């Protein structure tokens, strides 16, 4: 008998977990659990969007499992069929989340003065943000201590890579030789084997750009800080990576960020500060080392983004035509000239350090070209507007 396992956060108003609970009710082959990551990290949710079928087929992408995401939201994902090794690895991550749901977080968490992010916060007791002697042994299945120094989680110099022959559609578009692919996960306490953190997967994709090449990045939210912690965490990892390739590789970096009904107001300031890299680059005084890189950023506005929500509030018609939390460019991916990265995380600190996320990345030429094609269609669409530099009119 096949068993279906459903794992999710506590859901959203008004239905919360009613649908997965109803699916499991009275069915011995359907199991459903709710996992509250806030009990383990102080905040955070199950944000990974993953389907695993028969230990061989996998979907990873930005779409939530509801009708609104599949009809009213712009999504990007990848479906891998017959990739049993990768499916097993993702299943290990899923099993770790499943196990967390059954454990008592109060006995498996610690308060730590985080020296990397300079805040006091809650972490699992096996976290590398704790001093070595203060850690417990992980209760998770298939957990292998990653070869990092203590404390925190530095980048791995040789993360796990799959040498898998990925045949893309149509069938005659496979690459002549297997090209490396990888998986990355968040938060880092759920890493196993030699898989890299999701933050590293994104950053390494940005830095994989060739000299004078182009990096394309698409996300719903971009914020150079945490969104839900108190106090806030300053987070410069992605902006630093962008500036580094602009200067050191003379790269062009194109970024699309969603502008929608729940746009984070602080985003515009961070994006404008990132554009200041252009000023610094062009002001380089050394002829021998003149900087030719550039950052361009555009907002993507799905038509109707400002007409979402209840149609009637307190007896008054609102004029809204679409459901709440829809009409948004929700995809999360990056692609350089040689490497593609498709994930489930918004580019905000919380999604990499207190929230569950999964990404697939690859050097497969056909997938790289397809993701570039998807991005360029949006970049050149009538639904984008440029983000202006400081001192310019919006």
TrEMBL record:
<dbReference type="Pfam" id="PF13091">
    <property type="entry name" value="PLDc_2"/>
</dbReference>
<dbReference type="InterPro" id="IPR050874">
    <property type="entry name" value="Diverse_PLD-related"/>
</dbReference>
<dbReference type="InterPro" id="IPR025202">
    <property type="entry name" value="PLD-like_dom"/>
</dbReference>
<protein>
    <submittedName>
        <fullName>Phospholipase D/Transphosphatidylase</fullName>
    </submittedName>
</protein>
<dbReference type="InterPro" id="IPR001736">
    <property type="entry name" value="PLipase_D/transphosphatidylase"/>
</dbReference>
<feature type="domain" description="PLD phosphodiesterase">
    <location>
        <begin position="325"/>
        <end position="351"/>
    </location>
</feature>
<dbReference type="GO" id="GO:0003824">
    <property type="term" value="F:catalytic activity"/>
</dbReference>
<feature type="domain" description="PLD phosphodiesterase">
    <location>
        <begin position="42"/>
        <end position="69"/>
    </location>
</feature>
């Amino acid at each position: 008998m096949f068993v279906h396992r459903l794992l999710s956060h506590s859901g959203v108003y008004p239905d919360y977990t009613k649908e997965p609970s109803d699916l499991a009710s009275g069915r011995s082959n359907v199991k459903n659990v709710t996992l509250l990551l806030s009990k383990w990290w102080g905040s955070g949710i199950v944000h990974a969007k993953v389907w695993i079928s028969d230990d061989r087929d996998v979907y990873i992408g930005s779409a939530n499992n509801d009708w609104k995401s599949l009809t009213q939201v712009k999504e990007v994902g990848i479906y891998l069929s017959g990739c049993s090794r990768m499916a097993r690895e993702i299943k290990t991550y899923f099993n770790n989340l499943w196990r967390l749901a059954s454990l008592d977080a109060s006995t498996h968490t610690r308060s730590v003065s985080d020296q990397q992010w300079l805040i006091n916060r809650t972490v699992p007791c096996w976290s590398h943000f704790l001093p070595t002697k203060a850690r417990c042994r992980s209760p998770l299945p298939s957990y292998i201590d990653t070869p990092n120094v203590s404390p925190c989680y530095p980048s791995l110099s040789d993360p796990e890579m799959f040498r898998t022959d990925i045949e893309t559609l149509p069938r005659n578009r496979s690459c002549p030789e297997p090209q490396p692919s990888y998986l990355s996960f968040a938060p880092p306490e759920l890493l196993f084997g030699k898989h890299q953190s999701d933050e590293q997967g994104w950053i390494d994709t940005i830095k994989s750009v060739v000299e004078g090449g182009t990096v394309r990045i698409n996300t719903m939210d971009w914020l150079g800080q945490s969104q839900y912690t108190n106090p806030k965490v300053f987070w410069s990892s992605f902006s630093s990576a962008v500036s580094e390739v602009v200067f050191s590789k003379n790269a062009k970096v194109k970024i699309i960020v969603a502008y929608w009904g729940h746009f984070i107001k602080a985003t515009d300031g961070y994006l404008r500060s990132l554009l200041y890299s252009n000023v610094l680059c062009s002001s380089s005084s050394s002829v021998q080392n003149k900087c030719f890189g550039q950052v361009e950023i555009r907002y993507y506005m799905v038509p109707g983004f400002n007409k979402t929500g209840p149609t009637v509030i307190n007896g008054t018609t609102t004029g809204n035509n679409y459901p709440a939390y829809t009409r948004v460019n929700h995809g999360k991916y990056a692609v350089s000239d040689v490497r593609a990265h498709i994930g489930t995380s918004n580019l905000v600190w919380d999604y990499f350090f207190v929230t569950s996320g999964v990404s697939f990345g690859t050097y497969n030429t056909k997938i790289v070209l397809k993701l570039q094609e998807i991005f360029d269609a949006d970049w050149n669409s009538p639904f984008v507007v440029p983000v202006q530099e400081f001192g310019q009119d919006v």
